Each structure stands twice: as C-alpha cells, then as structure tokens.
Amino acid sequence: MFFCHIYRPGPRATILAGWSALCVQGSRRRLAAQLPPRLVISEDDIEESFLKGSGPGGQKINKTSSAVQLKHRPTGIVVKSQATRSRSQNRSIARRLLADKLDDVEKGSESRTALKTEMKRKKKASKMKKARRKHRIHDHGGDQDYSASGTESIDVEDTKAREDA
Question: Residue 101 in contact with residue 79, Cβ under 8 Å?
Fold first, then answer.
C-alpha cells in the first residue's frame, strides 16, 4: 500500500505541469522489517535455461523462449517461471522463488515464507474474532427473540395469555 502526498507549486492554472508526489511505502516496510532477509544464492550454484512457454498467451508465448528454468546444483531443486512475457522479469521472479524454496528447505518453520504465512494466519484470526464480536447476538430483554438473521419473533402463546389477563 502506498501513501502519496501530492502537491502542486505555483498558481492554480498549472494543472499537470509541475506536479510532484512524495510516496511512502507503508505496510510493506513494516512487514519487511519483521522478516529475515531473503537468502542470497551464488550464481555458480545456479544452472539457468530458457524455455518456450506454454498455455494462455497465444503465439507470442509459444514462439519465444521467455520462460526461465533455474536448477540449484547442490540441492537439485528446479524452479520454472513463466509469469510474464518478459525474460528479465521471469529471471528475477524465478530467482526469488528459488531463494524462497531453499530457505524453506534450510530453515523449515523459521523460514521467511513460514513467518509470512504465520503473520497472515494471525491477522485473519484477529479479523474473524473482531467480526464475531461485532455481530454477536445481544440480549435485548423482553419477549423478543433476536436471531442471527436480524428478524425478531414474538412468542404467540405468551402474547395471547397477556391479552386474556
């Protein structure tokens, strides 16, 4: 999530000329501060090959060798990336995926992805608890029964007994 402050110097007549933006990355910076750094892999340990893609994307994907396959020589872990049509973007994505997989193998439950998953799980549990607390059925007193659907029902027999009395 980016928080941007946009300001415009000069008179109001200059609409787009001279606009500037100061952007501060909010939640990602806080999340990155809590996580350990990503594993750095030596280029000598990686075997890189470029493959022709497959699947949706049409002729452009099928003709060009933009998919990247990385093999980590010491462990034998293979990662393939075909996320974009750009070879350079696929290379960086594949390296990130390989680093995450190696981190999972080495550190297990203390790895970067495991910590991210744990943080997401805690955040979701907190949201669910807040939602349950918000929508909890309150005792309003009297003969009215408020169900979870928000409708009220009145006991007919109790009402007839009161009218007769």
Answer: yes
User: C-alpha 128: how far from its chain's center?
Assistant: 17
* pLDDT score, position 50: 93
Largest CA distance in the chain: 93
Helix (H) or strand (E) holding 7: strand 2-7
What's the alpha-carbon Rg for the chain, to the nearest Å?
29
What pTM was estimated for this model as a whole? Answer: 0.57
Q: Which residue has the tokens 């594949």?
A: 94
Cα gap 80→101, rounded to integer Å: 12
Q: Render pLDDT for 111-121 as a digit per residue (tens, 0 to 9).
A: 888 999 999 99
b/e for 16-44, b at 16 or more Cβ within 10 A? eeeeeeeeeeeeeeeeeeeeeeebeeeee
Question: 46 pLDDT band (50/70/90 cuts)?
Answer: very high
pLDDT of 162 above 80: no
For residues 68 and 86, what is the distance between their CA atoms, to the nearest angstrom? 10
Structure tokens at 4: 């941007």
Residues 6+ apart with CB under 8 A from 82: 53, 54, 55, 61, 66, 67, 68, 90
